[in-house]
Structures are given as C-alpha cells and as structure tokens.
Design a protein that fits this description.
It is a single chain. By secondary structure, this protein is an all-beta fold. It has one domain (about 20-85): Immunoglobulin-like (Sandwich). It is about 0% helix and about 50% strand. Strands 4-3-6-7 form a four-stranded antiparallel sheet, with no helix packed on it. A hairpin with a 4-residue loop joins strand 1 and strand 2. It is globular, with a radius of gyration of 15 Å.
C-alpha cells in the first residue's frame, strides 16, 4: 500500500485568523458579513447555533464549564477556534 500527497496541499497554514476574543464577561466575535456561529461541545454536539451579521457578542453564562469549539461558517469559508468556559 502506498500513500502519497501533493506537497502544495500539505503546506502548513500560517494565515489563521482569531475571530473570538474574551473581554472579561463575554466573547466578542469578529465577522465580516452574515454567518452561522456554532458552539460545539467536546463530544461534537452542537450546543448553540445562531445566525449573525457583523460583529456580535456571545455570552457563555448559560453553558457548563468546559472546553468548546466555536465554528464560524460563512458560505464556503469555515473558521474554528477553541474556547474554555469557566463559570
């Protein structure tokens, strides 16, 4: 069995944009248009899914303490970021 890959597809991504910043009470989400914002727990369950348009805030008060993945889906562009909720 032989596995091969195109080198261009395996180049590391160096242009990773952080889109969620914690400001002390909630997350500020930077977005450039209409997108779907999903909060996914560590088991892969979608805990929250919201359509946003532009910059928005995400309060994590109603979510259990733990590690989550934020996924921002804008057309074909999908960005993910890990967050830690400590309530």
């Amino acid at each position: 069995m032989v596995f091969s890959a195109n080198d261009a597809e395996n180049e590391p991504t160096t242009n990773i944009e952080t889109f969620a910043y914690y400001d002390g009470s909630e997350y500020s989400i930077s977005n450039y248009g209409e997108a779907t914002l999903q909060l996914i727990d560590i088991q892969g369950h979608i805990v929250s899914s919201t359509i946003i348009n532009g910059n928005t805030k995400l309060s994590t008060n109603k979510f259990a303490t733990g590690v989550y993945v934020l996924q921002l889906i804008n057309g074909e562009k999908v960005r993910t970021q890990k967050i830690v909720v400590n309530n």
